[in-house]
């Protein structure tokens, strides 16, 4: 019934298309509807015009709600029309209400199981939600229904293969196959041709974008801002320009202006990943961790399978002191596992949080072991795991781990330093000295090795002058090393130079306010002790 009426109104359809202005066409349609308010065809046409106007980047106002209203009025007359359900789904898709769009596309398929366009849009919806397997299936259904006019569906599958975390020769071949088929079917896919035409239309902005890029490269930032602002007055719906302006403002340190531009891009496209990512970065640079958390949570809502967002959110939560919440997001990132090397780093970070913040060495060791399975030659894993075993007082396990690490990298100064600390903790002073000396041999600038060896000479062997020389070298290579200043203060105090010791303790106190290496009360007690005796 609906298609027959559509055919009968062809003449009016052509009449609308002849209007030079969308606004005049809308006004004409509104007048006709005033005379015939129950005409479903007119409501559909008015909805189409509103949708077209909404998508026009040369206007700023949003007309998507008006389009939805008109389609819904038409649906009252044609409740079984697959085409109207599809149009409402498209409107909600452009409104970025993806779940509602999916609902209407499903209704369109229910009314017409051969609706290839609806299957394709379902694939697009699931792509936006990062449900890639579902997107693949729906794109394949669209191809099956219309194999010779399915360029967009093939191209979507090509992109889905491209972003897959699993890489293999087979996947690569399937990706190339989909791209080839998208090219071969392009001439027969009218909607794909329209999409290509739209992309080509954006080339009109290319000279302006290149000019702006050159201005920025030549430090003509203010001129670039003026250029982009002028372009936005002509095309207020061009989302890319808002993101570019935000990037420029961010580079200028005008963070509040950058935030406004990114938010404008999000208002126009509530699923704009680039704008959200930039917004997250700005909030992090400002130290506005609460806003950064909100932005990352929105990104995760849009793309729940993007491991990077879970990891970044976990980092911010950890900085906020919310370790338990951070652990949950680190675990999510590891589960998503985009690639072994990256996931191994996240597993090590999770282990560190368990070890340092939660004091849960068993969980830390488990996380480090997971990282080892992913990247068994990563030296940092052995260092971290050995440290966790040491904290758990499982010294033999720690020793085994460090020795295994030395098999991979026998000249690693950090491993020798950790071995020195392990032997010292076990009371084996000679072995500890040997390892610290090897650490210094392989890295003559390693401040920690100098300091730890100095502590042995001072506290275990009573060789004060040797200790002083080692602490001075530690400070030479790391002037901000509070513990080394503190230990040097202890050494010179033993030699009777209380004034110099007090100066060193005060330096240690000042540095410790930043580095938090020591209990401040311990330093205070040492200063007071100098003058009490």
Descriptive overview:
By secondary structure, the chain is mainly alpha-helical. It folds into 4 domains: 200 residues, Tetratricopeptide repeat domain (Serine Threonine Protein Phosphatase 5, Tetratricopeptide repeat, Alpha Horseshoe); 87 residues, Tetratricopeptide repeat domain (Serine Threonine Protein Phosphatase 5, Tetratricopeptide repeat), CATH 1.25.40; 98 residues, Serine Threonine Protein Phosphatase 5, Tetratricopeptide repeat (Alpha Horseshoe); 123 residues, Tetratricopeptide repeat domain (Serine Threonine Protein Phosphatase 5, Tetratricopeptide repeat, Alpha Horseshoe). The chain is built from 31 helices and no strands. α8 packs antiparallel against α9. The longest helix is centred in the last third of the chain and has 18 residues. It is elongated and about 105 Å long.
Task: Map the helices and strands.
Blueprint: H1 2-8, H2 10-17, H3 22-35, H4 40-54, H5 64-77, H6 82-94, H7 98-111, H8 116-128, H9 132-145, H10 151-162, H11 169-184, H12 190-201, H13 206-217, H14 221-234, H15 239-252, H16 255-268, H17 273-286, H18 289-302, H19 307-319, H20 323-336, H21 340-356, H22 361-374, H23 379-391, H24 395-408, H25 413-425, H26 429-442, H27 447-460, H28 464-477, H29 482-494, H30 498-515, H31 520-532
Helix pairs in contact: 3-4, 4-5, 5-6, 6-7, 7-8, 8-9, 8-10, 9-10, 10-11, 13-14, 14-15, 15-16, 15-17, 16-17, 17-18, 18-19, 19-20, 20-21, 21-22, 21-23, 22-23, 23-24, 23-25, 24-25, 25-26, 25-27, 26-27, 27-28, 27-29, 28-29, 29-30, 30-31
Organism: Candidatus Limenecus avicola
Keywords: Repeat, TPR repeat
InterPro entries: Sel1-like (IPR006597), TPR-like_helical_dom_sf (IPR011990), TPR_rpt (IPR019734), Ycf3 (IPR050498)
